[in-house]
Every structure is written in C-alpha cells, then in structure tokens.
Backbone:
C-alpha cells in the first residue's frame, strides 16, 4: 500500500493508478488501518460539499436582490407555496411571528428558523421539490432575499451574498435549547 | 401545519377487513382447475375468448392462491429463486404521502419483516446503483477518502438487532386519540438485524482529527437529507449498514448504505448515505432547526433531542380488533433508546392495578422487546394499558404527565402510555386515559 500511495501522489489522482491500487488486493498493513478506500479527489469533494454552515462557510460566489427573488419565487416556488409564501399547499414560509407560545403555533422561516444560512443550504439542496438542485447560486440568493424580506427581516433594497447572508439575525435565533430529557417522571 | 411523520388516521385498505380474510376453500379448489384451464385456453385462443367462455372467472382476484381440497394428494409448488409469503397473508404497510406504517398488530416476535419495515422519506426513495455508489468522508480528517460498497464490505463487519423509530411516531396522539389501530398510532417503529461496519472503524481509517466533534451525514436522495451528529455519544455503537435481516438493505431503508444510531430517532439514521463531513460544531440543517425540534409550551424549542425514550404498546388486542370471551393473551412491544427494557406492566382496568408481563428472551438493548400477559375476558368493559421501565430506571409516563411538561405542540417524541378500550361487544378502540 505504501508503494501505492506514492504512486498516487505522483499521479496527482490519475484515475488509472487509482483503479490499479484498489484492485491490487494487498493485505491491510499492520498498524495502519485496512488500506481500504482511496483518496478523494478535489473534484469529488467539491461536487458534493454543498452544505452551508451558520458562519457562512460553504456559501458560493453570487448575489441576489429581493426584486429578482420575487420573480424566481413566482416562477418556481409559488405553485406549491402560494403566491406570497403563505397560502400553500406546501409549507408556509412567511409570517407566524409571536405564535410559538400559543395554542396554534405557526412555524415558518420568519417565526421559527434560527439561522439565515440554513435557508440557502436547504433551498439549494432540496428545492424546488420537483427539480432539486436546479437553481443557480444567484437564483438561490435572490429567493432567499425575497423570503427574508417578506418576513420583515431584511429591507427591500438588501442584497444577499456570501458576506451579507450570514450576518442576517433571525428573530428566533435564541428560541432553542439543548435536550433536557428525561423531563417526565413515570409513576 | 406540519404533518411531518405523523401517523395520520387513514382507512385500512379494504382487503384488510376481517370479512375478506377467510379464504373460501371449496370454491378455490374449483378455481385451481379453472385457472389452469384458463391459462391454457388463453394461450390458444386469447384472453377475450376465454373470458367469453367462462365469464365467472372474471371476478377472481389475480393474487388469490389456488388451493387444492387436499394438499396431501397434489404435488406442491416447485422451488423458487426468491420466496414470497403465503398468498393468504395480507398484512400490509399503510402508506401516506411520505411515510408508511408497519402493521404492528399483525406481527409476532420482535423482528419486522423487511418488506413491512416502516418508511419515511423526504422526497421519495431513490434508485441507486451500488456499483456506482460512493461514501465520501472529509472535513476534519487526516485523509479525505471515498469508499465503494465493496470497500465497506471488506472492513470487519458487525451485526446487531435494533429498533428504528421515527421521531414523529404517535405524533397524531398528542391532542386526541386519533389512530384507530396500533399501526396508525405506533406504526413508525420497526426492528431489524442490521449488519455493517462500525463507524469508528471507518473514521479510524481516515484519521479523525482531535478537533472533530460533530459529523454531518448526508443522503443521496432528492432531499439530500442531512443531519448533524455529535460524535462522542455515538462512537461506540454507530454502524454504517449495508444489510438488513441478512440481505441487502431495502431501497426504502437506504439501499445501499445507511447510518444506524441505535436508540436515536430514525431521521438521524441517514439513509442512502453518501457523505460524512467532520466538523467542530453542528451544521444547523433544516431538519434539526425547522423540523425535528420539540416546541415547548413557553415557545422555546428543544434541539438535538435524539434519544427515543422508553415506550410500549399493546399490539393485541388493539384498536380495530374484535375480542372473544375467554382466554386472551395480551401481547405487545416495548423498547427504549437508552438501553434494555427491564419491566413491562399491564393494566386491564385503566391504570388502577398494574401487573408484570412476561418478557420474551432475548431482551436486547435498544431493540423491540416482546411482552405477553395472560388474561380472561369476561365480556365486561375494560381499558388495556402497558407501561415499560428501562435499565436507567426511567418509566414510560402517562399521557397526563407527559402533556403537563411538554404541552401539545412538541410534535415529536410522544411516548405516553397507550390505552385501548374494550367495549362489551368485544370491539377495541383507541382511548385516552
């Protein structure tokens, strides 16, 4: 396997060498694991590394305005979430502030979500529901801007990009606590 | 608003109705011969002509098995490459839009047949070619690596039995007695024997960095489902599984690869697993902020509530079933995400008197445990309940106590004692005591 690894480095991830290596059937080396798997190429990591963290790590280049977002939403989201993100039939995205402690809480991006970055991450990975991962970064930034604006979180002239989005303070940022169970005692 | 993982009350498929269950043996005996004739006739003169000759065959359900009058006088069926259950058996999952429920009330023992294991997915079941599937591990590791399914199967393997329960199991019961059957109230839990490689083994292979404390697990489905998993509590038991009950995972269960975190909510056990990214903080995905968080009455939500607490349910007699006077064995399942079930008690009088049930061995940690309790039903009204205690001493709470602390809006992690009401006529229905 050591021989293999040096080959790998020399070949800078050349595919032919990789195949030859994993197919070599060498026994796992003492003390250095099982020698299984192969180094991930930069391209492999880049293709799948789509998550966005609360600090904004993972946000791609690009930008979007509220106005552009309104167009994206009307064209690609409104059919399921309603013209203003309220009507449905799919999840309501707007409104509900002040309802969490009532008998009928309305959980939305505006009332419940603690991080603005989650919105980029989720819309990019999972929406539109029928064509996930089809939006370009500019479209995602724009529709994120529109949803945040409709929830009264950012002004109409705000521009969302990798710098501004992580700085957006969500109203329910302090609305979560860690698991405190067991919290209920049986008889 | 959020229907997420709830056991929505739905009508049982009509073929599950008791009336249809008894096969009419004598008529089927004739059906056998007619069917054979029909097949032969069809190949000769075509279906339309055959139906014209014997119009009564039209009504025959295509799946009903041909039954000889005396099976000792007719050679049986030949061997088959992949077996099927007896044609008379009709237990089915109950599908909603993004989940299906296990028919707990018709199952025995602790293992759930793979075909009846509950489902929950967030944008359908993907079709994945195992030869092309890769697991990528990157982030705070010494060496980012990809693994083929073949690689993963070459690691030392581990098998164990474990239940998986959806965090939303019984979510319909917070406000009212909603599900009509045990399938509808509790059908988002199932037990399988799972086989795979220990997560710890694979993480050692990539060289986990000291700063790594959280892991993002990502699925290869159309939701690209992601959850952040704290490493310390799962390192001893987490498995990357490729097999279920001895064969490859079912597509609905994450084929070809899923994460298993024994005792933790099903959503965290990411299916169709394609990526593990090591980090030093939770990633705050939608499924651990907007969803799978438990809203308390004061408007604050609990986050990262992974463990499924001790819970039990009587599966027979249960809602929708019919009792006959005389001996009745009360049967059910109990489980705890914190370890072994140590005790199950049963009450037949709405919780006034509790008596210990017999636990069927093996009693395994974080696994369904079968309990049984002998009873004589004398035709009087009764309220049947079960409650379990686990090895930490935690006892399954009453509905009243659970709601006193958590209110009605938590959605997830409902584990209160379930009550079934037996009416004088022997009918059994969901009831909240």
Residues:
């Amino acid at each position: 396997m050591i021989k293999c690894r040096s080959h790998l480095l020399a070949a800078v991830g050349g595919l032919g060498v990789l195949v030859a290596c994993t197919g070599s059937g060498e026994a796992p080396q003492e003390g250095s694991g099982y020698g299984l798997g192969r180094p991930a190429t930069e391209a492999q990591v880049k293709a799948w590394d789509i998550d966005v963290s609360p600090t904004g790590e993972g946000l791609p280049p690009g930008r979007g305005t509220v106005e552009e977002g309104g167009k994206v939403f009307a064209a690609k989201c409104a059919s399921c979430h309603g013209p203003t993100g309220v009507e449905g039939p799919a999840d309501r995205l707007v409104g509900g502030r002040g309802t969490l402690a009532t008998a009928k809480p309305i959980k939305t991006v505006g009332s419940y979500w603690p991080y603005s970055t989650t919105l980029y991450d989720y819309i990019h990975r999972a929406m539109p529901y029928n064509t996930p991962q089809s939006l370009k970064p500019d479209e995602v930034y724009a529709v994120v801007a529109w949803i945040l604006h409709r929830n009264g979180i950012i002004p109409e002239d705000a521009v969302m990009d990798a710098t501004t989005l992580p700085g957006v303070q969500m109203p329910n940022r302090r609305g979560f606590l860690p698991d405190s169970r067991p919290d209920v005692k049986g008889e | 608003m959020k229907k997420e993982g709830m056991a929505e009350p739905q009508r049982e498929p009509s073929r599950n109705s008791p009336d249809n269950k008894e096969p009419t043996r004598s008529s089927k005996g004739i059906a056998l011969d007619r069917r054979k004739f029909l097949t032969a006739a069809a190949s000769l003169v075509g279906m339309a002509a055959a139906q014209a000759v014997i119009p009564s065959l039209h009504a025959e359900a295509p799946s009903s098995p041909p039954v000889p009058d005396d099976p000792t006088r007719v050679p049986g069926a030949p061997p088959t490459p992949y077996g099927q259950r007896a044609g008379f058996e009709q237990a089915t999952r109950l599908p909603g839009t993004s989940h299906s429920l296990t028919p707990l009330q018709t199952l025995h023992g602790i293992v759930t047949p793979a075909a009846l294991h509950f489902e929950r997915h967030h944008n359908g079941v993907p079709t994945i070619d195992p030869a092309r599937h890769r697991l990528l591990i990157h982030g705070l590791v010494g060496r980012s690596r990809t693994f083929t399914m073949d690689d993963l199967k070459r690691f030392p393997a581990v098998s164990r039995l474990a239940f998986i329960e959806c965090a939303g199991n019984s979510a319909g019961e917070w406000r009212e007695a909603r599900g009509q059957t045990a399938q509808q109230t509790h059908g988002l839990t199932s037990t399988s024997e799972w086989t795979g490689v220990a997560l710890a083994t694979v993480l050692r292979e990539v060289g986990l960095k000291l700063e790594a404390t959280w892991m993002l697990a990502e699925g290869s489905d159309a939701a690209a489902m992601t959850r952040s998993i704290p490493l310390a509590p799962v390192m001893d038991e987490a498995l990357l599984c490729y097999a279920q009950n001895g064969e490859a995972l079912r597509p609905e269960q994450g084929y070809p690869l899923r994460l298993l975190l024994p005792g933790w909510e099903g959503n965290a056990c990411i299916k169709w697993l394609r990526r593990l990214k090591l980090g030093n903080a939770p990633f705050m995905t939608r499924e651990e902020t907007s969803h799978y968080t438990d809203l308390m009455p004061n408007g604050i939500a609990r986050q990262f509530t992974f463990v499924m607490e001790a819970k039990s349910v009587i599966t027979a007699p249960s809602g929708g079933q019919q009792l006959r006077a005389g001996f009745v064995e009360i049967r059910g399942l109990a489980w705890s995400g914190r370890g072994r079930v140590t005790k199950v008690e049963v009450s037949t009088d709405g919780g006034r008197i509790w008596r210990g049930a017999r636990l069927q061995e093996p009693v395994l940690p974080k696994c369904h445990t079968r309990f049984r309790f002998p009873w004589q039903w004398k035709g009087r009204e009764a309220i049947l309940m079960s409650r379990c205690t686990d090895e930490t001493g935690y006892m399954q709470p009453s509905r009243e106590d659970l709601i006193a602390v958590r209110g009605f809006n938590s959605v997830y992690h409902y584990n209160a004692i379930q009550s079934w009401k037996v009416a004088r006529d022997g009918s059994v229905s969901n009831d909240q005591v």
